[in-house]
């Protein structure tokens, strides 16, 4: 069923007054090395130009100056990390009340860390100002109760460096970094990209070729594993790749909810960075902590399969709205699942048990008219 696109603030099927459109704040400007006063580039015969600025000239503050740093070992020990959803108000701004409630549900359910502004949290639909604000807000409100891992990755090394430094400056415990997407790079380029951000603090590298368009080969991860701040890998390729790393003593989290049980107990993964734990954090914790449990894994498979029937986070956004945990507001280009899938979710909740899911309201099937699609945010 095709859903019509609403104007900013319009509810589907209704004629309401549009909310004020909010323009995204410009991304934070980065100081170019060549713009530093008193520095020039030097060129050797047959060589590429080499900027004479050092890393310390480029960064506003050294990573060693960040107070209360998290040890890498504090990150590698985490078994359940939630890639947390970002809820919205009808005008497209963050719904921080709903967000805080969802984080509390994660803590109460046993999640040990949250990825802020990742794929599930729609960081790619945020300005950098929004992104860093949400990381800082999460640290300020919950940083003593749960590890806050900020997604500060980018296909631009310059942006990744700047955002990561800002994330650590506002107190995040670790950074999540994807490999440069769209513009594919060489193996040496991948290594150099990650080497630029690793000095700042504990880092998880995220390998998801279906989104980035390029696999991070084991050679890259093995090269980077010698860095003290290299916490590990969120790996979405599958069990054999997980085993490749665990055999070498490299920390790995499964990035696939439907595979995480076997990755954990048969292939040596430390745990999972999970989408499903937004909905059932207690059950996902049991899956990661209580030994092999084929019955629980089988019970959860219909949910984990449903969550990825269309690209994440479409299904999760729909589910949280139907549970009353988040408003049924979507930042475009995301739109809710079709009606038959919304009905299927309610049946899955009934089969698993409503008490295992977050929130207090009964799961209900929302109509098309209940959803608000925002094109300006």
UniProtKB/TrEMBL annotation:
Catalytic activity reported: L-aspartate 4-semialdehyde + pyruvate = (2S,4S)-4-hydroxy-2,3,4,5-tetrahydrodipicolinate + H2O + H(+)
EC numbers, comma separated: 4.3.3.7
GO molecular function, a single term: 4-hydroxy-tetrahydrodipicolinate synthase activity
Residue segments, region Disordered: 22-49
Coiled-coil spans in chain: none
Family designation: Belongs to the DapA family.
Known function: Catalyzes the condensation of (S)-aspartate-beta-semialdehyde [(S)-ASA] and pyruvate to 4-hydroxy-tetrahydrodipicolinate (HTPA).
PANTHER family for this protein: 4-HYDROXY-TETRAHYDRODIPICOLINATE SYNTHASE 1, CHLOROPLASTIC, DIHYDRODIPICOLINATE SYNTHASE
Name of the protein in question: 4-hydroxy-tetrahydrodipicolinate synthase
Organism expressing this protein natively: Zea mays (Maize)
